[in-house]
Amino acid sequence: MNLPALADRAIVLGARATDWRDAVRLAGDALVDSGCTTAEYTEAMIRMVDDHGPYIVIAPGLALAHARPGPEVRCDGLSVVTLAEPVEFGHAHNDPVRVVIGLAGVAADGHLEAVAQLANAFNDAAAIPALAAATTRDAVRTILAGGGIA
Amino acid sequence: MKIVTICGAGIGASGILKVNAERALQRLGLAATVVAADLASVSTVAADAQVILTSAEFVEAIGVTRADVVVIENYFDAVELTTKLEAAIG
Q1: Touching B: A residues 54-113, CB under 8 Å
Q2: Domain-located, residue A3
Q3: What is the average pLDDT value for chain A, to the nearest integer?
Q4: What domains sit in chain B, N to C, each tagged with a CATH number?
Q5: CA A82 – CA B26 distance, rounded (Å)
């Protein structure tokens, strides 16, 4: 699975979330809106945090919301939500979250290429603040493509 | 040598950690197999592993293991990963 192209509907800029659940739900809604998942997948993403804690906050300011592949995933998908106000997830080191990435894959073993490309983009320490500050969808696409700050 | 990365679903966070651990190993000039897995399969997947890379949230659930359990805070911080891997392996 290559990193799926980001449809306009999969990018939500300057969203308002009341708490972490709301923030994850926004990323899930964007996956649903882009036709890749059903609402059950969004609930599964929230359940991962309920079950295991805020480990999806994998870097300062960034949450990678995802759940397992399953019937609630129709196609490989990616969504990006930036928050107007940062939200606390309860993570010891990486709070508050300003960017939520939603990730859905139809098969577990197909994820790796997509996450490798995500890693490429985010291994640039400037990528998360740049995403948080992005004002256009094309800027988001450029940053995720590893193209630096648009 | 075998390194296992653990997260809740075994695909997203642990996948990122696998990719970046492989890059850190390359920088260190070390050879190891890195496998991403979910928490539920840790006892079987990590039975023959030397190192488990994960988040603080999973340490308790991973429980007793012969492997070194190493907590990574920033999955994209090459310096953190390289330093902690080197300490665990070296």
Answers
A1: 54-56, 58-60, 64, 66-69, 92-94, 103, 105, 108, 111-112
A2: no
A3: 91
A4: 2-79 (3.40.50.2300)
A5: 33
